[in-house]
Hints:
Layout: E1 2-3, E2 19-23, H1 29-47, H2 54-73, E3 78-85, E4 88-95, H3 116-123, E5 126-132, E6 135-143
Antiparallel strand pairs: 1-2, 2-3, 3-4, 4-6, 5-6
Helix pairs in contact: 1-2, 2-3
Amino acid sequence: MEIDPSRNSKGASEDLGTLTSAFGGELRNVTDARLAADGYLRALARATPPSQAEHWDDILLVVTELAANTIQYAPGPFELQMRPTTGGVHVTVHDTSTTPPAPRRFRPSQGGGGIGWHLVHALCDQVSVIVRPDGKDVHAFLPW
């Protein structure tokens, strides 16, 4: 896990910096991204504990879903960034696909799938997608 050395003076959680982790785009990288996020949240919790215990799990679930979607729909490397915000955590996943995510209908009888993007929207305060020439950034803002 790499922590950006840039710091500011907005408080203990703001002093934590930004997590930036790059992954090759293999299936095991979903777990790797979740572990990187968990390590970052541990450091954040030492500075500023979450206001509710479930916020930690919500953030890990969102990171897992975004990483899994990247593996499934945007083959190739991806990057995870996390940083504290006032009262929350900003998660960004950059991948190589220029196709924005879209909700799919959940059809368990056809092999599952279709629930992750809905979960991300349900758990986040805000979600946005920025398409760039080299892929896209999915931004998720979650309470902490």
